[in-house]
Specification:
By secondary structure, this protein is of the alpha/beta class. Helix content is about 35%, strand content about 15%.
Length: about 220
Amino acid sequence: MSMLTPPGMGGKKYRITGDRYPRMRRPRHRRRIALVITAAVCALALAGWGTLQLIDVFGGKGGTAQAAQDKKKCPDQDGAKQAGALSTGTGKPLPKPADVAVNVFNATARGGLAKTTADELKKRGFKVGKVGNAPPAYDKKVKGTGVLLGARTTAEGAQKVLGTQLEGAEPKTDDTRKTGDVDLIIGDAFKALAEPAAAQKSLTALTAPPKKDPRCRK
């Protein structure tokens, strides 16, 4: 019989007899080492993943999907240039108000609308032609704000410019007409022309080139 103090027994003495031995406690520092190793492996894995991401970004590969999305949002460059040239859709620039000849006709039962409207359009720089009552085909038959009637060649030019002055006017084409003037036929829902500031804003938006997206390359 002997007295031993095995490691990990907390300094206590145990008597060893026969074939039975006291249980040995596992040193606590081994658990700490295992936790430290696990944390280090996780940190290294995270750092490696971040490094790969940086390499992809600076190598021009990381933003491939995003670049594809941005490219879809970017307008066609040729189309943007055409719009920037104040195109009417036919390759010709939009006319200025001074180049648009307008005939003003009153299709309502209210008197004096044609003259007051014509005078206001003249102040805004339009060239006024005929002024009077609407022809029988439209007299008392226009329920909306008004109708813009002209030759097919005016649909993408003069009618658009004149349309900025009267919100809600319905554009129509007359294939039999050969001249470049446009008829403004006032309807029952007409109250007044658009405010000068609002009309000018609409005209500017119509003729201004579209803004470029900073994400789009030149």
